[in-house]
C-alpha cells in the first residue's frame, strides 16, 4: 500500500450522470484497510452504480477514486482488478458448464502469473491447483469439487462466486447483495462464510438485509439520492435521525425487535 495513504478505498467528490440524469452527486467515502463497510440506501439511491464506478465498469463524470492511494478512475476493470480489487455481482456470473474446481482454478491463474498458453496442461500447474483446492476448503465446497456449477444450489452458487472473487488474492473485496434470495438459515451461514473468507481484507458490500448489515459491518455508509448522508458505526447510524427519516425508520425498528427476541 502507498505510504502516502491511510485508506484502502477513497472516493473524493464523485459524480456520475447518464445524460441529464444525475445518479451520484458528490459522494465521499474513506475506507480503512481491513474494514468491513456496508452500503445501504433505498432503491434507486445509486448503490450498484457506485460499485460500477469503483470497479471500473463505469467512468466518472467528475471526482476521484483511489485504491491504496493510487487513482483508479479511468482504468479498465481488469486493470483495477490487477491492482488488488475484486467484486461479485447481484446475478451469479459463473462458467456453468465447468466444474466447481475449474471455476476456481480459472480465477487463480492470472494472479499466479500464468498467461495464455496452448502447450501447458492445467493439471500440471501444481501451485494453481493447490491454491484452487485451498479456496474450495475456505468456501466449504470441497465436497462438490467435481460437480458442474450449473448443478449447485443457489446458495452454493453464491458461495462459488465469492470463491472466485477472493481466489486471485485481492485485498479489497466488493460484494453486491451477497445474500439476496437466501433463506434465513442460509443467510446466517453465509454471513459467517463472508466473515471467514474476508478476514484481514477490506470489504465493501451492498446489502438490503438489515440483520446482515448490523451483524457484519464495522461501519455503514447510507446513500440517498446519490449522496452519502451518513458514514459511521452501526450504533450511531441506527440512532441517526436524518438516516431514519431518509431511509431506515420502520426497517430499523423491525431489526431492533428481531435482535431483542434473540
Question: Can you tell me about this structure?
Answer:
The chain is an alpha/beta fold and 262 residues long. It folds into 2 domains: 1-84 and 170-262, Rossmann fold, CATH 3.40.50.300; 93-168, no CATH class. Helices cover 37% and strands 23% of the residues. It contains 10 helices and 10 strands. It has helices at residues 47-54, 77-82, 100-109, 126-138, 154-167, 184-197, 210-216, 234-239, 241-246, 250-261, and strands at 9-18, 21-31, 36-40, 62-67, 70-71, 85-87, 172-176, 202-206, 219-224, 227-232. It has a 6-stranded mixed sheet, with helices on both faces. A hairpin with a 2-residue loop joins β4 (62-67) and β5. α3 packs parallel to α5 and α4 packs across α5.
Order of helices and strands: EEEHEEHEHHHEHEHEEHHH
The fold-level CATH name of the largest domain is Rossmann fold
Low-confidence stretches: none
What is the CATH homologous superfamily assignment of the largest domain? P-loop containing nucleotide triphosphate hydrolases
Based on DSSP secondary structure assignment, what is the total number of beta strands? 10
Instruction: Tell me the number of structural domains.
Output: 2
Indicate the structural class.
Answer: alpha/beta
Q: What is the first-to-last residue Cα distance?
A: 41 Å
Strands in their spatial order, largest beta sheet: 6-7-8-3-9-10
The number of helical elements comes to 10
The CATH architecture of the largest domain comes to 3-Layer(aba) Sandwich
Which characteristics define this entry?
37% helix, 262 residues, Rossmann fold, alpha/beta, six-stranded mixed beta sheet, four-stranded antiparallel beta sheet
Amino acid at each position: 500500500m502507498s505510504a502516502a495513504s491511510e485508506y484502502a478505498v477513497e472516493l473524493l467528490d464523485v459524480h456520475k450522470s447518464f445524460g441529464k440524469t444525475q445518479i451520484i452527486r458528490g459522494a465521499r467515502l474513506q475506507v480503512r484497510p481491513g474494514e468491513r463497510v456496508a452500503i445501504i440506501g433505498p432503491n434507486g439511491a445509486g448503490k450498484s452504480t457506485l460499485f460500477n464506478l469503483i470497479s471500473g465498469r463505469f467512468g466518472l463524470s467528475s471526482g476521484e477514486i483511489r485504491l491504496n492511494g493510487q487513482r483508479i478512475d479511468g482504468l479498465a476493470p481488469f486493470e483495477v482488478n490487477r491492482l488488488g480489487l475484486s467484486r461479485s455481482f447481484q446475478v451469479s456470473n459463473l462458467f456453468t458448464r465447468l466444474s466447481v474446481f475449474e471455476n476456481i482454478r480459472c480465477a487463480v491463474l492470472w494472479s499466479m502469473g500464468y498467461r495464455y498458453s496452448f502447450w501447458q496442461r492445467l493439471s500440471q500447474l501444481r501451485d494453481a491447483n493447490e491454491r484452487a483446492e485451498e479456496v474450495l476448503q475456505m468456501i466449504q465446497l470441497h465436497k462438490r469439487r467435481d460437480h458442474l456449477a450449473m448443478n449447485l444450489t443457489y446458495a452454493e452458487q453464491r458461495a462459488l462466486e465469492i470463491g472466485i472473487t477472493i481466489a486471485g488474492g485481492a485485498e479489497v473485496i466488493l460484494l453486491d447483495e451477497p445474500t439476496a434470495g437466501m433463506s434465513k438459515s442460509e443467510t446466517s451461514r453465509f454471513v459467517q462464510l463472508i466473515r471467514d473468507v474476508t478476514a484481514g481484507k477490506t470489504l465493501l458490500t451492498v446489502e438490503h438485509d438489515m440483520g446482515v448489515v448490523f451483524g457484519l459491518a464495522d461501519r455503514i455508509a447510507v446513500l440517498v439520492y446519490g449522496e452519502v448522508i451518513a458514514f459511521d458505526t452501526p450504533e450511531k447510524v441506527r440512532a441517526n435521525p436524518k438516516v431514519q427519516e431518509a431511509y431506515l425508520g420502520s426497517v430499523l425498528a423491525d431489526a431492533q425487535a428481531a435482535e431483542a427476541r434473540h
